[in-house]
DNA sequence: ATAATAAAATACCGATTGGTACAAAAATGT
DNA sequence: ACATTTTTGTACCAATCGGTATTTTATTAT
């Protein structure tokens, strides 16, 4: 059991993890532009100085939210890309998944933050840039794996393919979040990414 | 000459066209999210009630700005699409133009308004939907003209092609506005739209 | 002159924003 | 009992948001 250090002072009761979970969900379904520190405090049932002590300010909060979202939502979604499926089949699965109804808020918080870099603090902006590059690298690696398997169009530079995949997936998520018809969004993305598949001839 | 109606009351001095021009430029380079009625009044050198008399409120202002932008920037840009160029050549020209440095604020105000439908009033939102459909129709007509000329991939439904062109052009404008490398944006779009061109074989 | 009318700006409204000074509360040490 | 330390919340700050009641200004009609 824990040694019970018998610290002086009022015992800590603020649950950082719970606040972060509430904040992440809030930013996710209301959108980063419509959510503020006041509303987060109200939803989490804590005072504003409490939130500032824990996260240092709005920038620190959104940066922490982004990290939390990345760790709990984005990174797990990369798992399947490393599995032993064909590139074309996996691509189709991703597009179907992105345009399907899920039990979570519509759209992707990371995509929303990327397309609304306004009123996001410098710390959050820097984090976005780092994670965006990491995301492109994952897609590029996925494409390169398809390359050695001969499952993709070898005429496309892997770096450009990673960039294209990132852009198109982000576009799909934005269109879905805007309420566009899901099947139209999916078909449009299928067309846009057909260039990555080997020629039909 | 005008009959000089000798109206009673203080003569009108507010220049609606000039205010609209100032407001449009302001929304264009600052972004619809960062610009408000107070700042527009300051830049135009008029009082707030004056702006409210002229446009009825923020929603009326942004709707008028959108109309002005559409008439002076967007619609003229449709002109070349009706010219006697090949579909592939024209497409390449559009992408080059979108990713080139121009003497106007970066990005497209219409694209910015579309991707930030938040905090835009109902009148402006309705206008956006109408103009978006009009834009897709223009692209679809362009594709259909290429179809009868045998210059495009006949396997693609024209409606889907119009949707794809609209989506990809908007994506290009957003990426440019975000400061992404122009050549990377252009090459990525070229790949995404290659599906509309006839097969190489 | 003076009344009537129309168009303008001054000066305000309540709500909300991100951020903080300061005091109350809850534990331990003496 | 009382001081010390740590954590928390109350109550405030100035700035900004969209919007408006009211007054001033400038003109014509009488």
Largest interface: A-B, 30 and 31 residues
What is the strand tally of chain A?
0
In terms of DSSP E residues, the strand content of chain A is: under 5%
Oligomeric status of the shown chains? homodimer
C-alpha-based Rg of chain A, rounded: 20 Å
Helix content of chain A: 55-70%
List the secondary-structure elements of chain A in sequence, H or E. HHHHHHHHH
Net shape of chain A: elongated
State the separation between the terminal residues of chain A, measured CA to CA: 67 Å
Unreliably modeled segments of chain A: none
Total number of helices of chain A: 9
**Rounded average pLDDT of chain A:** 93
Class by alpha and beta content of chain A = mainly alpha
Tell me the major beta sheet of chain A: none
Describe the secondary structure blueprint for this structure.
2 copies of one chain form a homodimer.
Chain A: H1 16-30, H2 37-44, H3 48-55, H4 58-78, H5 87-98, H6 109-115, H7 122-148, H8 158-177, H9 182-193
Helix pairs in contact in A: 1-4, 3-4, 4-7, 7-8, 8-9
Chain A binds a DNA duplex (30 and 30 nucleotides) through helix 3.
Q: Keyphrases for this structure?
A:
homodimer; 201 residues; mainly alpha; 65% helix; DNA-binding
What does the model show?
- 2 copies of one chain form a homodimer.
- Helix content of chain A is 65%, strand content 0%.
- Chain A has 201 residues and is mainly alpha-helical.
- In chain A, α7 crosses α8.
- The longest helix of chain A is centred in the C-terminal third of the chain and has 27 residues, at 122-148.
- Chain A is elongated, with a radius of gyration of 20 Å.
- The interface between A and B is medium-sized, with 30 and 31 residues.
- The structure holds a DNA duplex (30 and 30 nucleotides).
